Amino acid sequence: MRLRILCCSIAVCALAVVAGYAQTKSAPPIPHLEKRGGVTQLIVDGKPFLMLAGELRNSSSSSLEYMKPIWPKLARMHLNTVLAVVSWESIEAQEGKFDFALVDGLLRGARANSLRLVLLWFGSWKNGISRYTPPWVKANQERFPLVQMKGGKTLEILSTLSAANRDADARAFAALMRHIRQEDSAQRTVIMVQLENEVGVLGDSRDRSPAANEAFAGPAPAELLEYLRKHRDTLLPEFRRVWEAAGSRTSGTWEEVFGKSLAADEIFMAWNYARYINRVAEAGKAEYRLPMFVNAWIVQPEDKGPGDYPSGGPVDHVHDVWRAGAPLIDILAPDIYLPNFPELVARYSRAANPAFIPESRAGAAGAANAFYAFGQHGAMGYSPFGIEEREDPEKGPIPKAYAVLAQLAPQILEHQSKGSIAAVWLNKEQPAQKLQLGNYTLNIELRRTRRAPGLLPEVGSGIFIAAGPDEYIAAGTDVQITFSPNTPGPPIAGLATVEEGTYVNGRWVAGRVLNGDEVQLRYDLAAAAAENQSGSGLRFGADGPAIQRVRLYRYR
Questions:
Q1: Residue 518, class by beta-carbon neighbours within 10 Å (0-12 exposed, 13-18 middle, 19+ buried)?
Q2: Which of 364, 383, 415 is the last residue of a domain?
Q3: Residue 425's beta-bridge partner residues?
Q4: d(C-alpha 538, C-alpha 90), whole Å
Q5: Are residues 541 and 523 in the same domain?
Q6: How far is residue 271's CA from residue 269's CA, in Å, rounded to a whole number?
């Protein structure tokens, strides 16, 4: 009898192992980043994934009841990803006792509406300030010390120089990631995690607590100095200038290596924030290795120096410090609300930093930003902030743009990796631009009307894919495009066929064949011919982005 029971037990265990193995094999792979061609893409369920995202307001996700009507609205807006806050105080109100009811509710809400989640861990800091920490952290400043500024005043900012601060945050974050692994390994609803939010010291250029002063007076860390030696030739120029101006030293105190300046203060804080957050990331990735990023409160035009913006945060001019101090952080992402979006996304895409914009504008400008980021910088995602309040779900610029980008996503992802995609972002200050793409130069300008050619739209955008030697896929709003050959042969490009249409499950479904008034941009044909132009081209109106496919031919 005992032998029979033992044999049955062994058989049950064996079946359990086989079942567990089968479940593991059938589960989709963990979301991860992968270098493909010249870009880094987010891989979800084994395939490249384009995040058409939106970030909720900070307090929205703190109430599951509040979120009930919002989830279906987000799905109607053609989002595929939602950025939602999970705060330290919401999961560990009492030290060591974790409650993940809110997290589980967010998972259910997202899954019920076929949405993915990027969780924003508001742990030690949000916008530089420590307001999302649990009450037991806030009330014990001896155990969890705060930043001090000049004159000895204390700021409501947890100090990076405290191991107790760091380790408590890391334990809570590890518990969160463990729970996500346990509850989400099969569905992979959560595809990425943001660590903290817009970190840095506000009100002073650095922490001046006793522990910080002691560290600042001591030697700059060997790991950072070794990074400088190893990457001397590839350091970002503004950071390299600070180091070289102080003599390019590879030993000494912070001020000896980086000079007696606000820049040295900011570099000191960047190192300490990076090391702190890298330890939190290490604890989380030990439980569940999802891609992780930090976001930057970028320098504003009125800022005079670090402390006006959060000193030590991952702004672009200290990216080298963050790379040296936080190798487990996958992306240093900018929050861009300023109007010079093309310039800023370019600055934050330097030195192979993957492009992802976790916070930005909605509206027509936001739609243009999304097209530009995906087409020109190989971005993996774009996310307007406060998305649940910003747009009409059917008629808003972001939902209309996302509807088109969702159709184009397979082509965008494929051509991002091939380098055969480009985009423009135009306004009245820059109403025209030329792009070299494939065998042609694309001459793009803000859309003009024959009745009022001087009346230009506020913003226009377009995304362009070289689908073949003489074929392009184009989508845009308020722009018009002509083509000029850039390879030997006849000098004028004509339109062989132009189709408007849609992509359905990745397959092109043609609508109207455009000709005549729909493609004729000018009637001064002699002048056009003198410029090696046909007078015809593609035109995209103001009523939201549309998709056109064009085949070209050449003549003399």
A1: middle
A2: 415
A3: 461
A4: 52
A5: yes
A6: 5
